């Protein structure tokens, strides 16, 4: 997606794209980080934060999961925190009946300064504290968000999973340098599939995100990719292939730490 500051516009885009994914036979769908709002300033999302269990964003995700009979991992949305000036950047999971099935709050908050480009998520986000996994139709799924990608210990703490999801809004600068290599590394070292749904393009606020949403297999091969713009990346998770990779190269069993 290339989300805007207008929640209703982004909901319309998400409805269209999720329907497109479901039409291909998808059983699990992942949305990008910040899919409901990419504000003109970082503080804009505070005003759109929802209480857990209510609000148009959560209502939309539940409806989409139920309407299409899919597991929906809702990228991230802003939830109300104890600090009125900050939100929790949260992935919520809905089962095919539209019922809440899991949650992960982003732990690592992005900070970056290079020339005129500067970001500091800690100004408007409260960090999460707990590793997030959920059992789905494609097996156990580990959840991470954007900047979490740089911290491999988080992924080890998930335990063996079939799939890791990484909704993201990587900047163009950092994404061009590190996005694909980090995603492939997480797939290789954890011997699982990695699905990364990203913001990708020029936003109304002047920010350019890297995009390159992709699906990567347990050997580290990129199976599908969309460089920029709205669209759907899709593919099949082959558990027999996953098992064969782990059997032929039993790195997970060889761990000593």
UniProtKB/TrEMBL annotation:
Molecular function terms, GO-annotated: hydrolase activity
Cited CDD domains: nit (cd07572)
Protein name, as recorded: Carbon-nitrogen hydrolase family protein
Domain CN hydrolase: 1-239
Cited SUPFAM superfamilies: Carbon-nitrogen hydrolase (SSF56317)
Keywords annotated in UniProt: Hydrolase
InterPro entries recorded: C-N_Hydrolase, C-N_Hydrolase_sf, Nit1/2_C-N_Hydrolase
Source organism (scientific name): Pseudoduganella flava
């Amino acid at each position: 997606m290339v989300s805007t500051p207008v929640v209703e516009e982004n909901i319309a885009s998400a409805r269209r794209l999720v329907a497109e994914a479901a039409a291909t036979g998808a059983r699990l769908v992942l949305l990008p980080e910040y899919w409901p709002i990419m504000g003109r300033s970082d503080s804009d999302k505070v005003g759109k934060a929802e209480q857990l269990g209510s609000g148009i964003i959560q209502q939309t995700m539940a409806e989409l999961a139920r309407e299409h009979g899919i597991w929906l991992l809702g990228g991230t949305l802003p939830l109300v925190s104890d600090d009125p000036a900050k939100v929790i950047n949260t992935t919520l999971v809905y089962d095919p009946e539209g019922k809440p099935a899991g949650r992960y709050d982003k732990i690592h908050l992005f900070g970056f300064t290079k020339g005129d480009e500067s970001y500091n998520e800690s100004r408007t986000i409260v960090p999460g504290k707990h590793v997030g996994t959920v059992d789905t139709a494609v097996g156990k799924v580990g959840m991470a968000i954007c900047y979490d990608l740089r911290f491999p210990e988080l992924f080890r703490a998930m335990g063996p999973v079939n799939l890791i999801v990484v909704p993201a809004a990587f900047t163009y600068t950092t994404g061009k340098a590190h996005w694909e290599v980090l995603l492939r590394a997480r797939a290789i070292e954890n011997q699982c599939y990695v699905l990364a749904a990203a913001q990708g393009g020029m936003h109304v606020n002047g920010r350019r995100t890297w995009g390159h949403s992709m699906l990567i297999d347990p050997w580290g091969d990129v199976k599908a990719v969309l460089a920029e713009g709205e669209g759907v990346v899709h593919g099949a998770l082959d558990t027999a292939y996953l098992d064969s990779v782990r059997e032929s190269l039993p790195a997970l069993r060889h761990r000593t730490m």
